[in-house]
Amino acid sequence: MFRRIRIVVLLLILATVAQSAWLAKSRATDWRSSLQVVIYPLNGDGSDAVAGYLERLREEHFEPIEAFLEEEAKRYGIATLRPVDVSLAPVIPGLPPAAPQDGNPLKVMGWSLQMRFWAWRNDPYTGPRPQVKIFVLYHDANDNERVENSLGLEKGMIGIVHAFGAKRMAAQNNVVIAHELLHTLGASDKYDPATNRPLYPEGYADPERKPLHPQEMAEIMGGRTPVSDAEAEIPASLQEVVIGPATAREINWLAAAGQARD
Q: In the chain, what are the domain boundaries?
């Protein structure tokens, strides 16, 4: 009997969490007001170089994300002034729980709940309650040629970004942050994980271009700019990126713009 009660209680908790997540996502993507996003910086490798970089990190470093999303939103008919409002939280000591590497669904589900609890417990931000939380783990750019893959959780609307703690990498970091931010809003990847090349046509910024290659821009969820059938380049900044129609549909821009016109 006690075991059955425990299972019922757990199911009720999961149902409540799921309902809360659905309501939060619905409010976030109606685009009637600014989406409140907070960046939480962390020293991902504990290095002195990253610590120094974090001391100099300012909110204006993320303004290109706001400008990019505002410009792209207007292209799709979203009239909200500043569709996304990005704020910066104080540096968080420690690190979030590591994501499972084997992709086991039960482990991923357990980690997702653990991550949301950790995000709730480790929140030094004192401003308006964020709708999306992006935890950016910075790594020493001189000691790391590559960093772990970043990810965005639609359930819980939390992003975990692995970035480089160097001024010269700030523009590319913003591309990754914007990508994971859109994941939290329901956007899907539009590239082949085996090759990292964008999928045609939804992963191309200009799928009607003739000749098709080289593309001049990258689709944000395609991740790279296709320059040939077999080669794609990482965009240097958000000035080289657009949001394609498939992504705009997934984050509810098309429906929201239609409702605004009606």
A: 31-186
3-state SS, 27-93, equals HHCCCCCCEEEEEEEEECCCCHHHHHHHHHCCHHHHHHHHHHHHHHHHHCCCCCCCCEEEEECCCCC
Token pair for 206: 């200009």
Domain 31-186 belongs in CATH node 3.40.390: yes
Query: For the whole prediction, is pTM greater than 0.85?
Result: yes
Contacts made by residues 98-106, CB under 8 angstroms, sequence distance 24+: 99/151, 99/160
Is residue 166 within 8 A of residue 141, CB to CB? The reply is: yes
Please give the chain's pLDDT, 262 residues, in tens: 666 776 666 666 555 555 555 555 556 678 999 999 999 999 999 999 999 999 999 999 999 999 999 999 999 999 888 999 999 999 999 899 988 877 677 788 888 889 989 999 999 999 989 999 999 999 999 887 788 889 898 888 999 999 999 999 999 999 999 999 999 999 999 999 999 999 999 999 999 999 999 999 999 999 999 999 999 999 999 999 999 999 999 999 998 887 666 5
Angle at 241 between CA 230 and CA 259, to 5 degrees: 120
